[in-house]
## 1
Amino acid sequence: MARVALEQLTKIYPGGVKAVDAVSLDVAHGEFVVLVGPSGCGKSTTLRMVAGLEEISGGTLTIGDRVCNEVPARDRDIAMVFQSYALYPHLTVEKNLSFGLERRRAHRSSLRRMVDGDYRAKARAEETEIREKIGTAAATLGIEQLLQRKPGELSGGQRQRVAVGRALVREPEVFLFDEPLSNLDAKLRVEMRAEIKDLHRATGATMMYVTHDQEEAMTLGDRLVVMSDGVVQQCAPPAEVYARPANRFVASFVGTPTMNFLEGRVEAGTFRSAAGVLEVGERFPAGAIVLGVRPDRVRIAQEAAGLSGNVRITEHLGDRTDVRVDLAEDVAWTVRVPESNAEAGDVVGLQVDPSDLLAFHAETGARIEPM
Ligand code: ADP
């Protein structure tokens, strides 16, 4: 069983940077977990510790039922796909795919030669098996016609497929992906995303995937691990992270356009702020809070009432319209509606159903569960 368990996993780089701070996470056999967060939050370092490419400063890493803190990378039964592809430029695609397998085979047969008179036949059988694995991987990824080319003769997407293929032929228990699609253009990223999802379905392997792209994370992961400053902020399925973010950081990181926020105070069921008032009923406790609402849950009224602001710009995007509204000094909201004829300079009212409001603690930023 290829479960991966991180217990209080910590990385302090020489020089004292605490890149990963006591991360605990249990990845189930066959699960697809995405580590997501802004650049520098410690996602890659976490993954590299799982891979065995980075020494572990503290905590415990278990793969299957074996503690792996000190186990060399090659003995961990994992395969990693990097953003940089890391292909051998002087080898053909076929050789790139077979390289790791050939090396393992050569190692085994040199041992066998000493003890087994029949090693030639076994070596031939292994050679056939390697060709079959390459054939299967190439067919899965649609790169059969590229096997004799060198990486320099491939597009970015094709190179990435080869990099995935190289992981695939090893038939590992665990796949690790470090921003594998970041070098591809937007359209290809979406295509490759679907392919990686298919690969997960087809192999049933355990997968850990690092990205800074929240949309990629939302679409790929069974579960997201949202990180900031080396610390896990929330670990939950994508829909849960979206609907019930643990705190203001997660709320603003997940979802495009980003969530709207407004500081104010709740008194007797009314939220009062610099931009006006909102009736919130009994949902939130009295006192200082920060309200949050997704752009597509706000409606625009022609007259100022409740909350109001000045339209700064209206962006017509074909299937939708984003209206940017200034509510107060340093507070701007995005309102996403199917269509709007609001124009820059208009004063508009903003309406929100109380059930679409989230509230966050004014100081800690933790989400306040509605009553
Ligand atoms: P992410 O993958 O989320 O972008 P990283 O795990 O690469 O973040 O980096 C986390 C933190 O550790 C950053 O502050 C980064 O500058 C630091 N860091 C990464 N690699 C090294 C290194 N080899 N030596 C020192 N600090 C590093």
## 2
Amino acid sequence: MTKYNSLKRIDAHLSSLGYCSRSEAKRFLTHFDVRVDGVRVFDGSKKVRHGSLSVDGEALDPEQLFILMHKPSGVICSHDDAGVLIYSLLPLRYQRRNPKIATIGRLDADTTGVILLTDNGTLNHQLSSPKSDISKVYEVTLVQALRGDEAEIFASGELVLRGESKALLPANMQVLCTTQVRLEIDEGRYHQVKRMFGAVGNRVVALHRVRFGEYDVENLALGEYRVLDFPV
Ligand code: URA
């Protein structure tokens, strides 16, 4: 993935990174200490490299963001649904960026754990595409005790979910206790984990994504996020 250092107008840098709108740029430049290579500027029309700009002594936010978040329950992975949107947990400036930051795939509102976000469409597609076969690990709490054949059924590669015709890829299930398992899947179909347990006569009452590929949230509290290096 390319690391950008794009050349564009100062006001275009500021507005695409959410510092201000294009029309607010003039005011922003008078109120904030915007510098190009250390020299204070007031004219937003000059074309400069992203890496040469600073605001109040800080380098500009990265041109592309890749974020790891510990999703709490009750927030929605969507830009336009009613309710508390996951983006509201990010700083206002990130929420105003253009292109918009989006989640890489989705978790249900009541699911907690690892969610990645980016404003790079190519990266988003690469990591969320059904063909990407990235491993995802979930801790699943069930309403009823396991009946005993679930691990074998999930590992078979023959389970077809209701309304679908293609069998799921084999999945690995480890029993933690009679009503809790750790499930590793390599695909991400709609409500996949809940539907898998529905298919074996059970119901998920709590779902936590422990890992997405190499990423986990062991050092992040619920609702916290960390900006990661952009993958190369
Ligand atoms: N599977 C589900 O059923 N829900 C999620 O949020 C993630 C995977």
